[in-house]
Amino acid sequence: xxxxxxxxxxAGALALGLTAVTIxxxxxxxxxxxxxxxxxxxxxxxxxxxxRLVAQKLAEQTGVSFxxxxxxxxxxxxxxxxxxxxxxxxxxxxxxxxxxxxxPALFADLPWDHAHDLVPVTTLVQTPVVLxxxxxxxxxxxxxxRTYARQHPGKLNFGSGGAGSSAHLQGALFNKDAGVDxxxxxYKGAGEAMLGLxxxxxxxxxxxxxxxxxxVAGHRARALAVSGAHRLPALGDVPTFAEAxxxxxxxxxxxxxxxxxxxxxxxxxxxxSDVRKALADPALKARLAEQGAEPGGxxxxxxxxRIKKETAVWSDTxxxxxxxxx
Length: 326
Description:
Blueprint: H1 2-28, E1 35-39, H2 46-62, E2 66-70, H3 77-84, E3 92-97, H4 103-106, E4 118-134, H5 142-151, E5 157-160, H6 166-178, E6 183-186, H7 190-198, E7 204-208, H8 209-217, E8 221-226, E9 252-260, H9 265-279, H10 282-290, E10 294-295, H11 300-320
Helix pairs in contact: 2-9, 6-11
């Protein structure tokens, strides 16, 4: 009887051990099924471009299908909420961007816990922002623009894709860092804001490099400064904000992947590792460079710290600009 009990105990322990191993292996095996990547905006933007570029490379690497789905609306909240409510198994991911860190400054009551319900995985792409003025603007340098703006508060204006948009908050941050008062003019989208600039309706626009570069190349806009630690090869004669005398303004737009809370840490690390491998592909890096973008690939911990820091910065910026959550 004792021998039988001992055998059962050993068998049970072995079964439990095998179960634990199986669970651990399953948690670390990714992808084991088709993966959906939710883009919380309409197709065609930089967020969508980043998701599709990396999804294609991940599919090639793993032999598993990666499907990009656009779920636009609510400043990105509709798509984000869908991922929050998804199973935490690595089969549904969110491609979010800098605007995600701005949501608490814009919405008084988000339908999920902004700090905990999505787990940052890694960045896909990062793009500097460029401060542009119309091609016929009298301002040839950032210093000339700042000097005039300081001497004439409220005289100049800057465009954005709408009240509470990323360009609005970035313009407000520029006002704060540069010590100027340039009036905000909201448009119905980033495209309209750029049209407003090139037509001379607004004096200044701060926008992502991929949006600015075609207008600068076509001599419809003039770039005065670019964010980031170094100049863009495609805009080699345009100084960084630091070189132009404004080191405090160092906004860089990021686009990254997040997963639902509860996704196993092994899966998070595997996704991050596979994305880094995809981003190392020379052809992919060349395509990004053409758009004035750089590959991401930071660790989940670094990504989480970045979102936390930027959320605080943008909330403070919104308060300073008189933008209240609604």
